[in-house]
Structures are given as C-alpha cells and as structure tokens.
Amino acid sequence: MSNAVAQLGSLQSMRPAITADLMAQTGLDECWLTELVHRFYIKVRADAVLGPIFAERIVDWEPHLERMVAFWSSVALMTGRYHGAPVPKHVSLPVTWSHFERWLTLFRETAIETCSPAGAAHVIERAERIARSLNMAVEGAQSASDTAPNLR
Ligand code: HEM
C-alpha cells in the first residue's frame, strides 16, 4: 500500500471522531446546515445583483441545494460528503470581488440568524477563506484571457 493510500485510510477512520468533535464545538449538524443553505439561497435568489447570475445558470434548484448541503457538511464538519470541484464552476462567471463581498454579506447574515454563535463564526471563517480563493481563481482566469494573444 502506498504511503498516501495508507494516510487516506487512517484519515477516513479518524473522520467520524473529527466530525463529532466539530459538532460538539460548533453546535452544527446536517439539520442546521440544511436550514442555513436553504435560507441563504432564498436571499441570494431575491438579491438584485446575485439573483440574475444564479438564475441564468441554475434551472433546477433542488440538486444545487443538495450539493451545497453536502459541500457545507464537508467544509464545516469534515464529513467528506462533497466530491465536486467548485473552481471550474466559478472561473467564467461575470463577477468581481464586489460580488463575493455581497455573497459574504448575505452568508454572514444567514449564519448569524440560523446557527449558534460558535457555529456561525465557524462557517463564516470558512466562507471568507473560500471566497478569497475563488476570487483569486476568477481574477487569474480574467487576466489570462485579457493577455491571451488574439489568434484570429
Ligand atoms: C460571487 C459569488 C458567487 C457566485 C455568483 C456563485 C455562483 C455559482 C453558480 C452559478 C453555481 C452553479 C454552477 C453550475 O452548476 O454550473 C455555483 C456553484 C457552487 N458554488 Fe458558487 N458562487 C459564488 C460564491 C461561492 C462561494 C463563496 C462558495 C463557497 C464558500 C461557493 C461554492 C459553490 C459550490 C460548492 C458550488 C457547486 C459546484 C459543483 O457543481 O460541485 N460559491 N456557484
């Protein structure tokens, strides 16, 4: 067995204990995360700036919401339930940091309304970090397309 596979195996066997610790520290569970995600996207869809960007790309909201609950379960509770790749889904969006700031404003608001103070602080810290890294990927893709030679 390779070292990496052995490490992955031991990480997987530690996962339930890590998840249990995170649940105890934050008061979060799948039920709270489901509530958070659903409430958050109600706000996003009603938002004058973000709403149209999502509406143009998401027709069937149920699978998106399920994917986002799995994502937050992985990010906040380390359950490993999410297996997607968010970066490629964002790099071509017509967004700048101001869109991410708006996204974060709505997310912070919803987290504070929905979760315990420790749970809200935990998901907000994760969201801020991921938003900064998605924004860097978007900026990278935008500047690469600005400087690409026109081959026509
Ligand atoms: C400017 C702010 C943002 C906009 C406009 C935006 C928009 C979108 C859209 C339209 C999709 C659906 C893409 C598709 O299925 O084709 C999506 C998916 C997703 N977004 Fe965002 N997003 C934003 C910020 C964020 C942030 C900050 C996070 C994480 C904290 C995030 C996490 C995700 C994830 C996990 C998916 C699912 C990717 C997959 O298919 O596995 N997004 N987003």
TrEMBL record:
**Superkingdom, natural source:** Bacteria
What UniProt keywords apply to this chain's record, in alphabetical order?
Answer: Heme, Iron, Metal-binding, Transport
Q: Per its record, how is this protein called by name?
A: Group III truncated hemoglobin
Source organism (scientific name): Paracoccus rhizosphaerae
